[in-house]
Design brief:
281 residues, alpha/beta, TIM Barrel, seven-stranded parallel sheet, 15% strand, globular
Length: 281
């Protein structure tokens, strides 16, 4: 069995330019939380992580390796989320995130940009104007918020992932024609279990939306990945816990494991091929 991949851990993107770094590369910058959380759970490796955190020895790369080794993940994909309709604010955030993504050299960390949009024309504007910046990310995800946006995301030739914001009422339904289009275009649907950890209302919506997606994708067998979508390392869960959660909204245990191992590996590999093909065009 392959080690799992977390295809989406969040990083802070708002505020002054320094907050992009201080806003924490999700788990990468949460070494102290990780050490404290694992100190009572995972033996010698966890105690070493906790010791290093207390002694202030964390670097970006060391923190990432520590988190991966303690909870068994092979890699994390660090996500920068922007709103297509926010104009200058998103433009500045996207440029900063692209610069950091280009500079990242830890082999266990990948970069990702998620573009949230409700109007397909706003998405096309971002894809056109920021083509060079988006090419610096390893993965491109789209987060639709309307029926038209969902259909556009599923038909996209640029996207690797359609991220489902499952913690609230969705502005669209999983139409069979759109789901088929996404699968034909080799686009994965993503559920972030972090939505179920926030509060009881988010948890209710998460299970309703996750169940609907599972039904639309043959119990999650067709093109589904399970990610955390969290900003704090303490909220990252083991594969065993996530698999158990997935069985509650209709996925089989084997399919849930594949959604954290085989499917993310395939998605990242295909995303890399897309970037190479685009650069050669």
């Amino acid at each position: 069995m392959r080690a799992p991949v977390d295809a989406c851990v969040r990083r802070g993107m708002r505020g002054d330019p320094s907050s992009a770094r201080a806003g924490v590369d999700a788990v990468v910058k949460r070494g102290r939380d990780v050490g404290a959380w694992n100190a009572s759970a995972s033996g010698i490796g966890a105690r070493n992580v906790a010791r290093d955190a207390r002694e202030g020895e964390w670097t970006d790369e060391k923190a990432t390796r520590g988190v991966r080794s303690v909870i068994g993940y092979r890699a994390f994909v660090v996500d920068a989320r922007v709103e297509a309709e926010e104009g200058v604010t998103s433009a500045d955030a996207l440029r900063r995130a692209a610069a950091e993504a280009n500079a990242r050299d830890d082999e266990g960390t990948r970069s990702r940009c998620t573009i949230a949009f409700g109007d397909p024309s706003a998405l096309q504007h971002v894809l056109g104007v920021f083509k060079s910046e988006l090419a610096k990310f390893d993965v491109l995800a789209l987060e639709p918020t309307s029926e038209r946006a969902f259909a556009s995301a599923c038909a996209s030739k640029h996207a690797d992932v359609v991220s489902v914001r499952a913690g609230g009422k969705l502005g669209y339904r999983f139409a069979a024609s759109d789901v088929r289009a996404a699968l034909k275009n080799k686009i994965w649907f993503e559920l972030c279990y972090g939505e179920a950890l926030r509060d009881s209302t988010s948890r209710m919506w998460f299970f309703a939306n996750a169940g609907a997606l599972a039904r639309a994708t043959r119990g999650g067998r067709d093109g589904v990945i399970l990610s955390s979508g969290v900003e704090r390392a303490i909220d990252v869960r083991s594969m065993h816990d996530v698999v158990n959660l997935a069985t509650l909204f209709g996925m089989r245990e084997s399919d849930a494991r594949a959604a954290m191992t085989t499917q993310p590996y395939e998605m990242i590999a295909l995303a890399g091929k897309r970037r190479l093909d685009a650069s050669a065009a």
